[in-house]
C-alpha cells in the first residue's frame, strides 16, 4: 500500500496545488514533504513486510497488471526523488511565476510519474509512467522556459518519444513470447527475453537501448540535452538532470540487463566505447562553454557517460557503484543547479564572463559552490568519490579486452572534469566582479535549507556510505 | 435483423419528418430521439442473443453474430454522440436538414450489412448504401463551390472504385462459382487460380479507395476539406470505420487461407498510407486539412488489423475504430467552435478558454497515442496483432517512426494553444455542449485505462 501512496500522494497534492492559486508553492512544498516522509519510510522498511509488492488485475486480455514492487534500488531512487523535489521547491521561492498553480502542479505530476517508473514491475505500466513523467516536463519547459524554449523542448520531446515507441515495440514482442498469463510482468518479460535466440536478442537490445540511451543521454544521442537544460527553468532542469536521466540508467539495470544478458555482453564494448568517447567529448565542450548552464549540462553528459560505461562493464562492483553513484550524482548535480540558480538570479545572466567576485560579495554561496564542485569532481571525503571509485574499479575488472584503454580514457575525463569545474568556480567566485551588480543578496532561509541538506548528504555519504550500500543491496 | 429493419424504418420516418416539420431545432430533436431508439433496438438485440449464437438470414446471405451486433451498437452510439456533439452545426448546413439526418440512418443500415454480410452481393449493397449518402453529404452545402466540387470528385472516384469492386467480385465468382464468402475453397485447388488473385487485388484496390489508403487516397484531402465541416467529421470517422469492418470481414473470413499471397501487397499499401498521410500532414497550415491527412495516417494504422490475420485484429479494429472516432469527433467539435481553421487560429486558446484547450489536449494526445488515452491502447492492440503475425516487424517499426512524425503535427496544435499568444475567436459554448465535451474527453481517458470495456466477454 505504501508503494501506491508514493504515487498517489504527489498526484493528489498536484491536484490540490493546481486549484490553490497563490498558496500553490506552499501547498506543493507541503505535499512534497509528505512524499519525502513516505519515501524515507519506504527506504527504511525496504525488504520487510511493510513494503510488500502490490498487484491488481488491470488488463487481463493483454496480460497487464497494475503491479508495483520495490527492491533496494527502486527504494533508493524513490528516496532520491523524494529528497530532490522539496529542494526544487525551496529554491526560487521569491521569484514571481506566471500561473503558479499549474507550474507547481506539473512539477508534482512529474514526481508521480518518476515514482511510477521506479516502482512499476509490469512492462505496460512501466511504459505508461515512462511517458507520463515526460508530459508534465514538456509543458513546464515549453511554457516557462527561456527564449528558444518551444523548438528546443519539442526536439527533446520528439527524441524521447521515438525512443519510447521503439521500447514499446520491444516490450510487445517480449510479452508475446510468454504464455499469455501476466505476460507483461517483469519476471515473465525477463524469462522470455533470456530464452530468445541470439538474433532476436540483438533486435530487442537495439530497440530497448535506443530508448534508454536517448533518455540518459549517451553520445551520440545527446543532442537534445544541452539545449533543453539551458532553456528550461532551472527548477525543471534539476528534475531533468537529477531524476529523469536516472530513468534511463535504472531502465538499463532493470529492463535491459536481465532481459537480454547475452546481447548486452555482445554490445558492451560498443556501448562502453560510445560512453567513454562521450565523456571526453562532453568534457572538452564543457571547457569551451561561456554559458554556465550549458557548462553544467555538458558536465552532466560526461558523468552519465561514466555511469553508462559502468552499467555495461558487467561486473558486480560496477553495478553496485552505479547505484551508489546514481544517488550521489542526483544530489551533486542538484547542488550545482541550485548554485547556478542563485548566481543567475543575483547576477541576472548566465554568461560566465559577466560573473566573478562572488567570494567577496556573497561568501556563503561561494563556500557552497566550492563544496559542491568538489563533490562533482569526486574529491575524497565527498560522496562523489565513493561512487566513482567503485565505478572505476568495476570498469577495470571488466572482462573486456580494452578495459585498460577504457580506464585510461575515462580517467582523462576525470581530469578534464576537474579542469572545467574549477575554472567555473574560479570565474564565478573569484577575480573581479564583472557583473555590474554590486549588492548581491544573501542566501535566504529557504535557500540555506536547500543547500545545507545537500551538503549534509555530500559529506555524510562521503564519510560513511554504508547505509546507502546496504539499501541498494536489498533484493 | 431487428436493427436493420428498425434503421430502415427510422430512416424513412426521418425523411417524412423532414417534409412535415419545418423548424430545424425540432428536426434535430426528432433525429436524436430516433437515434436513441435505434441504439435501444441494438442493445435489445444484443441482450436477447445467446452467447456464441449465429443467426443466418436469407439463405446464409447474412450471418449475425454477437460481435457484429456489438459493433453495430458501438457505431450507432458513435453516431448518437456525433449528433449530440455537432447537431447545432449540422442544422446550419444547407436547407434540407431532415434529409441529412435520414442519410445517417441509411449509412447505419449499410454499416449493419457490412458487419454481417456473408455474400459478396450483400457486401456490395452495404458499401453502396454507405457511399451514396456520403456523396450527397459532401455536396450538401450547395451554394458553396468547394462543397460541390468535393461531392463531384467523391462521386467520380467512388464510382470508379465501385466498378473495380464489381470486377473483383465477378472474377472471384468466375473462378469459384460462389458468392458466399464462407464457401470459397481455395485450398482444394491445385494452384491458386490467377483469376482469384486478380479478383483479390481488385478488391484490395477498391477497399483502399473507400478507406482512403495510399495510393488511392488522393480524393480524401479535397473532399474532406471541401465538405461542410460537420459532415467531414462523420465521413472521416464512422464512415471510414464502417468500410473497415467490411474489409476485415471479407478478407479474414474468405481469404484468410490464402493470406500469404495478399498480405505483402496490403503491408506495402499500409506502409505507403502511413508515409503519405503523416509526411503530408506535416506541411499543412489548416487544421482541418491536417486532420484529413491525419485520417489517412490513422487509416494506415487501422490497416494493421486487416494485414495481420488473427483473432486479435478484430478486437484491435473495434478499439481503434472507437478510439479514433471519439477523439476525432471531439477535435472536430472544438474546431467548429473556432472561426479560423488554421493552426494560428488556435493561438492563445489556453488563456482565452482553458476548458476548450484542456479537452482538445486530451483528444490530441489520444490521436498521437500518448498513454492513458484510448488512442494509445488502440495503437497497442494493433501493434500487438502485427507483432504476433511474426514477419511484419519491419512494418511495426516503420509505423512507430511514422507515429513519431505524427506527434509533430499533432503537437503543433498544443504548442499553438498553450505557448503562443493570440486572440482566437470562439463562438459561445452552451452548458450542454460543455457537458458533452467533458463526457467525450472522459470516455477517451476511461477507454485508455480500461480498453477491455470495449470487448466484453462473450462477443
Structure description:
The complex is a heterodimer of chains A (about 475) and B (about 450). Chain A is about 75% helix and about 0% strand. With about 475 residues, chain A is an all-alpha fold. Chain A has two domains: about 260 residues, no CATH class; about 210 residues, no CATH class. Chain A is globular. Chain A starts with a helix and ends with a helix. The model of chain A has no long low-confidence stretch (mean pLDDT about 90). By secondary structure, chain B is mostly helical. Chain B has a domain of about 200 residues. Chain B is built from 17 helices and two strands. Chain B has a two-stranded antiparallel sheet. In chain B, helix 11 packs antiparallel against helix 16 and helix 12 runs antiparallel to helix 17. The model of chain B has no long low-confidence stretch (mean pLDDT about 90). Chains A and B meet through helix 5 and helix 6 of A and helix 15 and helix 16 of B.
Secondary-structure topology with pairs:
The complex is a heterodimer of chains A (475) and B (459).
Chain A: H1 2-18, H2 24-44, E1 54-59, E2 64-68, H3 72-90, H4 100-119, H5 123-144, H6 149-176, H7 186-194, H8 198-215, H9 224-231, H10 234-256, H11 261-288, H12 292-311, H13 316-347, H14 358-361, H15 363-376, H16 383-397, H17 403-429, H18 445-463, H19 466-473
Helix pairs in contact in A: 1-2, 1-4, 2-3, 2-4, 3-4, 3-10, 3-13, 3-18, 3-19, 4-5, 4-10, 5-6, 5-10, 6-8, 6-9, 8-10, 9-10, 9-12, 10-12, 10-13, 11-12, 11-17, 12-13, 12-16, 12-17, 13-15, 13-16, 13-18, 15-17, 15-18, 16-17, 16-18
Chain B: H1 2-20, H2 24-48, E1 54-57, E2 62-65, H3 66-90, H4 97-116, H5 120-138, H6 145-176, H7 194-210, H8 219-226, H9 229-253, H10 259-282, H11 287-307, H12 311-337, H13 349-352, H14 354-368, H15 374-389, H16 393-419, H17 431-449
Antiparallel strand pairs in B: 1-2
Helix pairs in contact in B: 1-2, 1-4, 2-3, 2-4, 3-4, 3-9, 3-12, 4-5, 4-9, 5-6, 5-9, 6-7, 6-8, 7-10, 8-9, 8-11, 9-11, 9-12, 10-11, 10-16, 11-12, 11-15, 11-16, 12-14, 12-15, 12-17, 14-16, 14-17, 15-17
Amino acid at each position: 500500500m505504501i508503494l501506491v501512496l508514493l504515487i498517489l500522494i504527489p498526484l493528489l497534492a498536484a491536484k490540490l496545488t493546481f486549484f490553490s492559486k497563490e498558496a500553490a508553492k506552499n501547498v506543493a512544498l507541503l505535499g512534497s514533504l509528505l512524499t519525502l516522509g513516505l519515501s524515507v519510510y519506504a527506504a527504511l522498511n525496504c525488504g520487510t513486510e511493510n513494503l510488500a509488492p502490490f498487484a491488481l488485475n488491470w488488463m487481463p486480455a493483454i496480460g497487464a497488471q497494475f503491479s508495483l514492487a520495490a527492491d533496494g534500488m527502486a527504494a533508493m531512487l524513490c528516496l532520491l526523488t523524494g529528497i530532490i523535489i522539496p529542494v526544487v521547491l525551496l529554491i526560487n521561492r521569491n521569484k514571481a511565476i506566471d500561473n503558479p498553480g499549474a507550474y507547481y502542479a506539473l512539477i508534482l505530476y512529474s514526481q508521480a510519474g518518476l515514482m511510477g517508473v521506479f516502482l512499476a514491475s509490469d512492462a505496460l505500466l512501466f511504459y505508461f509512467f515512462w511517458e507520463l513523467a515526460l508530459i508534465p516536463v514538456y509543458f513546464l519547459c515549453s511554457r516557462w522556459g527561456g527564449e528558444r524554449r518551444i523548438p528546443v523542448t519539442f526536439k527533446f520531446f520528439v527524441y524521447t518519444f521515438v525512443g519510447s515507441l521503439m521500447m514499446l515495440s520491444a516490450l510487445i514482442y517480449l510479452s508475446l513470447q510468454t504464455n499469455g498469463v501476466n505476460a507483461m510482468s517483469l519476471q515473465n518479460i525477463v524469462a522470455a527475453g533470456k530464452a530468445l535466440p541470439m538474433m532476436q536478442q540483438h533486435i530487442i537490445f537495439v530497440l530497448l537501448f535506443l530508448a534508454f540511451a536517448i533518455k540518459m543521454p549517451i553520445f551520440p544521442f545527446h543532442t537534445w540535452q544541452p539545449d533543453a537544460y539551458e532553456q528550461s527553468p532551472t527548477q525543471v532542469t534539476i528534475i531533468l538532470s537529477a531524476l529523469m536521466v536516472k530513468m534511463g540508467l535504472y531502465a538499463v539495470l532493470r529492463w535491459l540487463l536481465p532481459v537480454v544478458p547475452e546481447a548486452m555482453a555482445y554490445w558492451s564494448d560498443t556501448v562502453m566505447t560510445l560512453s567513454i568517447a562521450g565523456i571526453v567529448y562532453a568534457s572538452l565542450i564543457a571547457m569551451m562553454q561561456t554559458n554556465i548552464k550549458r557548462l553544467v549540462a555538458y558536465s552532466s553528459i560526461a558523468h552519465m557517460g561514466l555511469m553508462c560505461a559502468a552499467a555495461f562493464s558487467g561486473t558486480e562492483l560496477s553495478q553496485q557503484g552505479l547505484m551508489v553513484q546514481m544517488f550521489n550524482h542526483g544530489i551533486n548535480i542538484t547542488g550545482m543547479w541550485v548554485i547556478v540558480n542563485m548566481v543567475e538570479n543575483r547576477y541576472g545572466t548566465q554568461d560566465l564572463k559577466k560573473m566573478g567576485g562572488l567570494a567577496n560579495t556573497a561568501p556563503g554561496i561561494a563556500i557552497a559552490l566550492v563544496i559542491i564542485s568538489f563533490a562533482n569532481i569526486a574529491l575524497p571525503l565527498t560522496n562523489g568519490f565513493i561512487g566513482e571509485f567503485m565505478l572505476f574499479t568495476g570498469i577495470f575488472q571488466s572482462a573486456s579486452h580494452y578495459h585498460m584503454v577504457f580506464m585510461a580514457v575515462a580517467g582523462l575525463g576525470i581530469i578534464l572534469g576537474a579542469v572545467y569545474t574549477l575554472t567555473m568556480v574560479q570565474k564565478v567566485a573569484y577575480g573581479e566582479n564583472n557583473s555590474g551588480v554590486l549588492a548581491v543578496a544573501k542566501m535566504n532561509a529557504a535557500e540555506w535549507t536547500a543547500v545545507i541538506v545537500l551538503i549534509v548528504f555530500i559529506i555524510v555519504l562521503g564519510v560513511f556510505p554504508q547505509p546507502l550500500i546496504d539499501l541498494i543491496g536489498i533484493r | 435483423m431487428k436493427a436493420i429493419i428498425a434503421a430502415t424504418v427510422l430512416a424513412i420516418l426521418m425523411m417524412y419528418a423532414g417534409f412535415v416539420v419545418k423548424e430545424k431545432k425540432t428536426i434535430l430533436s426528432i433525429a436524436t430521439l430516433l437515434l436513441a431508439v435505434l441504439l435501444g433496438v441494438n442493445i435489445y438485440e444484443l441482450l436477447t442473443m445467446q452467447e456464441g449464437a449465429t443467426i443466418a438470414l436469407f439463405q446464409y446471405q447474412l450471418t449475425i453474430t454477437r460481435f457484429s451486433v456489438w459493433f453495430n451498437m458501438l457505431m450507432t452510439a458513435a453516431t448518437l454522440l456525433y449528433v449530440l456533439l455537432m447537431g447545432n452545426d449540422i442544422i446550419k448546413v444547407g436547407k434540407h436538414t431532415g434529409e441529412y439526418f435520414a442519410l445517417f440512418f441509411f449509412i447505419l443500415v449499410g454499416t449493419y450489412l457490412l458487419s454481417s454480410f456473408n455474400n459478396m452481393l450483400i457486401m456490395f449493397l452495404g458499401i453502396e448504401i454507405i457511399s451514396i449518402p456520403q456523396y450527397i453529404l459532401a455536396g450538401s452545402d450547395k451554394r458553396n463551390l468547394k462543397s460541390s466540387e468535393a461531392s463531384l470528385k467523391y462521386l467520380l472516384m467512388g464510382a470508379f472504385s465501385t466498378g473495380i469492386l464489381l470486377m473483383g467480385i465477378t472474377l472471384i465468382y468466375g473462378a469459384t462459382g460462389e458468392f458466399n464468402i464462407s464457401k470459397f475453397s481455395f485450398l482444394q485447388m491445385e494452384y491458386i487460380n490467377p483469376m482469384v488473385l486478380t479478383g483479390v487485388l481488385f478488391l484490395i484496390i477498391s477497399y483502399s479507395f473507400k478507406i482512403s489508403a495510399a495510393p488511392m487516397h488522393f480524393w480524401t484531402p479535397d473532399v474532406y476539406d471541401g465538405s461542410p465541416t460537420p459532415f467531414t467529421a462523420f465521413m472521416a470517422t464512422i464512415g471510414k470505420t464502417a468500410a473497415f469492418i467490411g474489409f476485415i470481414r471479407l478478407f479474414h473470413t474468405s481469404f484468410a487461407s490464402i493470406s500469404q499471397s495478399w498480405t505483402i501487397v496490403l503491408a506495402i499499401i499500409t506502409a505507403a498510407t502511413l508515409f503519405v498521410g503523416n509526411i503530408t500532414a506535416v506541411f499543412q497550415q489548416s487544421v482541418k486539412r491536417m486532420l484529413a491527412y491525419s485520417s489517412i495516417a490513422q487509416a494506415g494504422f487501422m490497416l494493421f488489423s486487416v494485414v495481420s490475420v488473427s483473432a486479435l485484429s478484430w478486437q484491435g479494429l473495434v478499439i481503434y475504430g472507437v478510439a479514433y472516432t471519439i477523439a476525432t469527433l471531439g477535435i472536430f467539435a472544438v474546431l467548429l467552435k473556432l472561426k479560423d481553421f488554421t493552426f494560428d487560429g488556435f493561438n492563445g486558446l489556453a488563456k482565452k478558454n482553458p476548458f476548450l484547450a484542456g479537452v482538445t489536449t486530451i483528444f490530441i494526445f489520444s490521436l498521437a497515442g500518448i498513454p492513458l488515452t484510448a488512442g494509445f491502447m488502440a495503437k497497442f492492440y494493433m501493434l500487438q496483432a502485427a507483432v504476433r503475425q511474426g514477419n511484419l516487424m519491419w512494418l511495426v517499426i516503420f509505423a512507430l517512426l511514422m507515429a513519431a512524425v505524427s506527434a509533430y503535427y499533432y503537437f503543433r496544435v498544443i504548442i499553438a494553444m498553450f505557448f503562443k499568444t493570440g486572440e482566437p475567436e470562439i463562438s459561445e459554448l452552451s452548458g450542454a455542449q460543455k457537458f458533452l465535451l467533458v463526457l467525450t474527453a472522459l470516455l477517451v481517458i476511461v477507454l485508455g485505462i480500461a480498453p477491455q470495456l470495449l470487448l466484453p466477454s462473450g462477443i
